């Protein structure tokens, strides 16, 4: 029924058959309500009125009543609808002049913040067009058990081609009834999923919220509290850095670099010192390597404490934990404030070399570039291709002089070039 | 404040003719000194035995040896001396409240209990449910990432241990039960174990037939049990009443709650906080029918809509079958008016919260010619029992859930206290409109007095105007500091004379805030007198301050300016 230009959409109202045979071809369709990008072209100047966020905590709102009805002219700033949020009933104004062409979400219905609730047309002629669009989008939205992600993952909500197999609790009752839990019903309404099209996977064949979320293409979220303490899930190591000197299985580049730096710092403690207030400097008793990590457009430096004391594998594990915590914004202050030496690795971005700027309170920062195959001439005059990684250290010259730094770097490079020393 | 002095001699039938509302006499045997009773003084002045021991608030010496002669008695063959002044059947909240007050007034009191001391409130009601609701409230807060984030907090996955939660409730119940028992024992109340049955006027049988006790006045305080409508099969595991639910033996994924009054509502709060989904089945056309409609609407918006709760209104659950043979609990719904079948629910569990039925079977009421009405014992406004001919049964009272006037724990003890006041010579009529009620959901709901429709109806009938003042918790600093601005307080009053007709609060700590209003109603305080009272800032009580200040009353303050106090 949906006549969108895409060749992939099928008539979804009967909910089923062909879609499950072509799971991978539907990956492009966006599940977001206003994602029918193809149907809103720039020329037609039909604007959407969105469900506004009336408070910072509001996630969805309910239309209490439409002040203006379809066909009425609106001027900018006029109140159009009364929306009930989690806090109060508020009048919502329109930002544009025009004619209220179509109401997408009627009185008493709920819509998520940001979803279109009505269409505004600029001129009379466009009103009809807008109406058609509204009808189409709501229809195709309600009848489309929306798209699965690219991998043909749980298509459990789609029964196979007709005849649909009876649900697992084939009870003796005559007509097949859709039993859905309250949360499932709410989610179905919100994401416009037709409950009758789903087969429940819950006990006795009931439709669970997870079924609805899967049908709507959202990763099912386990929002209810788990009775009994859950074990934290450990995910796969996030970094797969570019090849360094050697990369034993499971150990990341960061861990190798941190360990090597720590071992070198043991031999050159002055590089691990810091200048506290411009006058005194202190040797730090611990070697805490802070590693710069980019998350979500920001930067944080989780610290591997006593990096010289832990062995490489332990260090690697600790690092994984720290990154997870950083991503989950659960780092404790002492886990990012206590660094004595910073490591910044931009190798994975293909950067050859770069100069890092010293963070205040530390003695030195090491900038590591990408490891690239480079042509080298050896002592006998023969050429060889070797993996070369450029490492650059910036230090506080008030406390660390060039000679100290050079010595440190020599030690560091010896350690790195000799991988066995890392596992000591 | 009377200050009559009465001296009495034993045993004179002429003195017996004095009406009971002025004085009460305790006649003593001639061998002991006369008892002087000054009505205006504290009961401590009463001397009990020959040695003139003052019984202030300490333990009375036991046993009290003086026999107490009967006042007047008309029917049956009244015993000349009673075992006790006051016998209370039922050691629940009502009985306990009455017992404590009776001892304070100097009555020799006994309390009869056939099951556990504490009754419903302590063992199967208020106490365990508040323990579970406390857990639910915390759980809800910890899971509300949005809310915590707005305060700058974050909490990683909160979880619970079902047995630990259940144990909290059970331990609390047993602690309170022990406290109750000990408080009565310490004050010298005799706790008689066994089912009480009234054999005749002022005569009660305890347990097996050889134990018979006589008392001058008897109070029936036997309470109530959960009411299960017919067609519903309760198995205690998947189809349960509040008695079972409070043990929290399991947390179902999906539970249907039949009845959306305050019991059903509180349980929905507990279950949704622990991760269940809830479906309400309500016979009337709207949820929460007992509340003020405006509060009910707001409560629905906050307590039901955003949670995993849906509902069916205007339907009866005509048949509920527990889960067995691999089938879920099935509930057949019929239309409340037309009785046509409407739907069938298949859920994991069903909680029956359709109200409570009085527990008056086996009380022996037929021996004194009293007939119950739907199980409730008929009483007048002074809690005196009325027999089948419409006449008052002397020396017999009934308080609490058993009489059905106001089925709340504190109402039962207030009624008990009222009875003891009457029995010790002061007439007392409890003003039920001053008794507050609360529902301990999150946020809480509380009310005192009339709802708006009731007030308007009364206004129309009696010819006075009714006004309403409202204020939101969003205007309150403390509520906003806690980021709990969701709430409403409503004052219904008479603008002509400032009388408070009703106050309803929905919001944080509503159950505690209502007492300013209930006190005002109990003491007859008018708005114009209370509006200048100072409330600490910033506290939630300013919500009520706002309410009183925003009311528009035509009358002026009646109390004169008091003498200034040097600070």
Automatic annotation (TrEMBL), chain A:
The keyword Acyltransferase applies. Residues 179-216 form the Peripheral subunit-binding (PSBD) domain. Residues 46-121 form the Lipoyl-binding domain. One of its GO terms (cellular component) is chloroplast thylakoid. Residues 130-192, 217-240 are annotated as: Disordered. PROSITE patterns: BIOTINYL_LIPOYL, LIPOYL, PSBD. The keyword Acyltransferase applies. PANTHER family: DIHYDROLIPOAMIDE ACETYL/SUCCINYL-TRANSFERASE-RELATED, DIHYDROLIPOYLLYSINE-RESIDUE ACETYLTRANSFERASE COMPONENT 4 OF PYRUVATE DEHYDROGENASE COMPLEX, CHLOROPLASTIC. This is Dihydrolipoamide acetyltransferase component of pyruvate dehydrogenase complex. It comes from Arachis hypogaea (Peanut).
